[in-house]
RNA sequence: GGGGGCGUAGCUCAGUUGGAUAGAGCACCGGCCUUCUAAGCCGGUGGUCGGGCGUUCGAAUCGCCCCGCCCCUACCA
């Protein structure tokens, strides 16, 4: 509602400025600094002042005189040096919200691909992966809320060195595929945790015993070829770890559409196709001298260019990534076969790739996107730039422009957190705000451990407040609180802020946290539930309230401000999508919860004696509840029945 | 050396893309539970927006120069 008035105001000013001054200006709409200035501010006069060589205040006066009525806007006034402040028609606004006038979330019609999570399938997920998945999943929810068609991909690098390293670890411990299968089946062993430690052990041995390097490369080749015991072990490990990762992510409500695997990218010779294209369009060249002699190199990105094909003829990871990015846009001329992997509770089917046509399930199509977001941490921005440069060099200008590296900074640990975990850090690092830890050394916070800690903490809170409920029910509520807490924590930081992870901070349920947001929604529900417990029904708001009554109630500034805040959910999501910043939605949810908590304390709704006011307040409560629930669901934050 | 990011209250961070008197949370101090749940609410303390110069009606935001920190800059993935 707010958003559509915003658009109308912007268009009206744009048309007027075009007609009057012949200038095309996308008139910005701002929020006035103080709420008593009105609901919208148009600073267009400032933007025009220079070109027109007139005082902003005078231009503002001309604009106000010429603009004419805009539906939903009650008044306009000039303030400061030339701001045009608008006040909305409160009654009409409230009544439109009550009627639920459609916003029109048609979407762009594009097919958007979002790739996220992408954890190496060789060990348990850690908190860095949680940030990736939470950001990616929330961005997907934001896009879908705007009516966009989105496909979620999670690439499985099941043929990479990280898997090979774990396989080497098993081999050196004398294990065969059946032993690994037994480990996976053993209920006393958490396989992903086992591999976490094994990976640290083998990494340490590589350091000590350089001669083991040949094991690594032999294993890697075997896995790539897909034949023999090593390859079988690689498959067993990767499949089990992928299952573990999917389970971890599902705890947070993160789902995917398709898991493309490197093994198929390899076996279906995606690279060969891309290589032909790159060669024939001269996007890469064969270096004949210098340190890159004998390599196929992409020029332009650095002085010596970027090696795409090594002198031994093998392709680098970036090369494969270019092929994969081409596939996403439907530009490769090759495709995967697919088989269903599992069905989620909501009926969504998760597919994975296969190289066998005969395994292929029902006719499904993936890829062929028009816009692609790769959720990958900022340390890989150089490689992402190479991929985009590759598209550009092939002449796919449009697709290059529509390839977005949705980057984010890493999750590091606070020195205090390192100390708690027993991770030794050098003396000089103690006073730094954060320390990057090494997965190779087995350092870090495992995703499931963190989730478990959060559930335990929430469980203590729930069980102390609700002694009447069963343990299972308390556990269910605690889990919802833990998820809300974790997702909010990962989302409250903007993408380019390094998270210095601190356990104590992450475990807080007070202040700007997920539980705060959940609590406000629970309170709103409580009011409505209490009403029914007293034998009353929710009033028929449409029959009881009209524009005039709305106008009367909304004269109260407090009510108007809460309603206004609650009505801006779509606008907030829109802005956040444009900015590519899920944190903005999180911030909005928090501010909305804050506004409601304030309102909640000040106005005991069920005690209200005035009939019209009471009905109005109930409607406000219900409206707020719907808006906050909607926003929370975009953030992937569940709302518990009680807290 | 080159590329990117960061520097805002004691701490952790926002700041709607150049707008009006710079905001939250935590911490600290003082109030509020017989009411729809105190995971809450109200009030208070706390700022040279790293420093300087510039651009203009107007700068935390843009440009240049410094200072400090981080990441990247492989024939590893």
Average pLDDT, all residues = 92
Distance between the ends:
31 Å
Task: Report strand %.
Answer: 5-15%
Strand arrangement, major sheet: 5-4-12-13
Category by helix and strand content: alpha/beta
Helix content: 40-55%
Q: Tell me the number of strands.
A: 15
The biggest beta sheet reads:
4 strands, parallel
Alpha-carbon Rg, integer: 29 Å
Secondary structure tally, helices: 26
Low-confidence stretches: none
Summarize the structure.
This protein is α/β, with parallel strands linked by helices and 643 residues long. The protein is 53% helix and 11% strand. A hairpin with a 3-residue loop joins strand 2 and strand 3.
Lay out the secondary structure.
Layout: H1 2-21, E1 40-42, H2 44-52, H3 56-67, E2 73-79, E3 83-88, H4 90-99, E4 111-115, H5 127-145, E5 149-153, H6 161-172, H7 177-185, H8 191-208, H9 213-225, H10 228-251, E6 258-259, H11 262-267, H12 270-280, E7 285-286, E8 296-298, E9 306-309, H13 317-328, E10 337-343, E11 349-354, E12 371-377, H14 381-393, H15 397-401, E13 403-408, E14 411-413, H16 415-421, H17 447-465, H18 471-491, E15 499-501, H19 503-506, H20 514-533, H21 541-544, H22 547-553, H23 557-567, H24 569-579, H25 582-602, H26 611-634
Parallel strand pairs: 4-5, 4-12, 6-11, 12-13, 14-15
Antiparallel strand pairs: 1-3, 2-3, 7-8, 8-9, 10-11
The structure holds one RNA strand of 77 nucleotides.
